[in-house]
């Protein structure tokens, strides 16, 4: 049910429509260059990062630097894990390895280890397998001489021209161990782990210059130390935007669907058999310059009907330096039931920031949806970090205004910005949380290209009570996996004994009948 009614203003719609049409041709070209080279900082900082910014229902809590150079820190993706009473953030970087940070006390984050892997991108996902906590760590393009010389390169015997994804064992967070390497010649811009933990889908995000046969590489990782190539799953070639390759993939919780943001298009895949997916839906939207991420959310409207909305981020121009804000926004499609084969656009949402940029990037980037709490967190590069209320999305699908021209700025199209924080030197790549209290408050963690690791607190007052979000204890999950394996092994040992006993019983019975 929506928490509040939403509205839009005609002048804001007109302003954005004009700015997008006028500026898209200007920024699309440099985007190709920027994407091929990988994300680079576009904001500037002093020797020390700023500690005072502008916040709405949010406050700055702490910052952690990855080195003492006083230069851009190269933060990228961020993920989390809980082991027993300890909670950790796993922060990827463009060249400084995976930072393993103890966030048990969010006000005092402490780095406990660095997995030395000098590769560029550092997209991360976490899963468990047979008593181990594992994480993936990506190399977008070749690992280079530095990557080959770093620990992951030495452990896995990588050459400078290798590209793909590293699997790391984090069962002991202070002692990360290299497990294996999944080679992908086109590189690993992002990868996604199927909810079963048995398959990895690779997104290379290559540009038009890579060819006319885009694909998603699929690996079987059920045996993490010996990953097995399954196939290069072909996807359509759409010669618009920067290319047609998959940039990012999100699986549904049950693993039966995957949503691929593929630059010029967004795809819906049936992954009931994850080794052999089928494409069942495609979105080609001229209003989306670069389809960057596509995440579904299922909510119940005020009419009691459940609807599933696909939220697609537009990383306009591939995060090239911007001329204005708000840049690329969030595009919304109804994919309820049969609509997943022909998604219907219900609107687009943008942050309420209207500024001329001096080159620092302003566009939507990495988001995370918290479905039970009806919330989203998202990074917006130089426009910092944002918290968005999604409670009106289900109703937005049936609103008379729903459609491609339904543009909202901060409040509308079923979404309301309820928190934000912007530093003068912000360049946030990702912003997520692992825990939300019943009163709606939480500590959010930003991995920033310029600033490094930031902690913010959202006070929750603008939304009221929500269902609490608690992180899963992976240590308990590991114990259950080990117990399950032990039980299976015990049954395997008992089976021959039971069979022998049954045979002896039958022989004895036969003897009694013949005596």
TrEMBL record:
Tagged with keyword Transmembrane: yes
InterPro entries: Quinoprotein_ADH-like_sf, WD40/YVTN_repeat-like_dom_sf
Keyword tags: Membrane, Transmembrane, Transmembrane helix
TM helices/strands, residue ranges: 484-504
Descriptive protein name: Unannotated protein
């Amino acid at each position: 049910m929506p928490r509040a009614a939403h509205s839009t203003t005609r002048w804001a719609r007109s302003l954005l429509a004009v700015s997008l049409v006028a500026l898209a041709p200007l920024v699309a070209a440099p985007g190709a260059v920027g994407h091929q080279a990988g994300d680079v900082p576009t904001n500037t900082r002093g020797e020390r990062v700023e500690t005072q910014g502008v916040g709405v229902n949010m406050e700055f809590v702490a910052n952690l630097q990855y080195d003492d150079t006083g230069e851009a820190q190269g933060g990228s993706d961020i993920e989390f894990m809980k082991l027993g009473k300890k909670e950790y953030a796993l922060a990827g970087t463009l060249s400084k390895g995976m930072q393993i940070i103890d966030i048990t006390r969010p006000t005092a984050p402490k780095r406990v280890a660095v997995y030395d892997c000098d590769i560029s991108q550092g997209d991360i996902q976490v899963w468990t397998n047979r008593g181990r906590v594992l994480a993936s760590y990506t190399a977008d393009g070749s690992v280079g001489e530095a990557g080959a010389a770093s620990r992951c390169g030495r452990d896995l015997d990588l050459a400078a021209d290798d590209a793909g994804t590293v699997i790391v064992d984090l069962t002991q967070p202070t002692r990360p161990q290299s497990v294996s390497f999944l080679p992908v010649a086109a590189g690993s811009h992002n990868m996604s782990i199927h909810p079963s933990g048995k398959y990895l889908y690779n997104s290379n995000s290559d540009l038009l210059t890579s060819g006319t046969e885009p694909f998603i590489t699929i690996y079987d990782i059920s045996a993490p130390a010996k990953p097995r190539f399954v196939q290069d799953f072909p996807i359509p070639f759409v010669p618009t935007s920067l290319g047609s390759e998959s940039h990012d993939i999100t699986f549904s919780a049950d693993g039966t669907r995957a949503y691929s943001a593929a630059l010029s298009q967004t795809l819906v895949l049936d992954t009931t058999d994850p080794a052999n997916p089928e494409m069942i839906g495609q979105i080609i939207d001229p209003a989306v310059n670069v389809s960057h991420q596509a995440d579904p959310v299922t909510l119940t409207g005020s009419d009691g009907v459940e609807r599933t909305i696909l939220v697609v981020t537009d990383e306009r121009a591939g995060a090239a330096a911007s001329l204005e804000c708000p840049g690329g926004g969030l595009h919304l499609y109804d994919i309820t039931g049969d609509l997943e084969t022909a998604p219907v656009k219900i609107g687009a949402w943008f942050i309420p920031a209207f500024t001329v940029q001096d080159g620092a990037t302003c566009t939507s980037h990495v988001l995370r949806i918290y479905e039970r709490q009806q919330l989203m967190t998202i990074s917006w590069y130089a426009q910092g970090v944002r918290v968005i209320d999604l409670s009106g999305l289900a109703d937005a699908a049936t609103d008379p205004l729903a459609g491609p021209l339904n543009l909202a700025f901060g409040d509308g199209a079923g979404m309301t910005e309820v928190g934000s924080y912007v530093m003068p030197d912000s360049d946030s790549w990702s912003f997520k949380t692992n825990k939300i209290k019943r009163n709606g408050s939480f500590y959010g963690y930003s991995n920033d290209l310029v600033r490094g690791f930031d902690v913010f607190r959202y006070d929750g007052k603008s939304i009221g009570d929500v269902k609490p979000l608690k992180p899963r204890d992976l240590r308990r999950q590991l114990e259950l996996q080990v117990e399950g394996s032990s039980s299976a092994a015990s049954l395997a040992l008992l089976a021959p004994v039971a069979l022998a006993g049954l045979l002896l019983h039958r022989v004895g019975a036969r003897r009694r009948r013949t005596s």
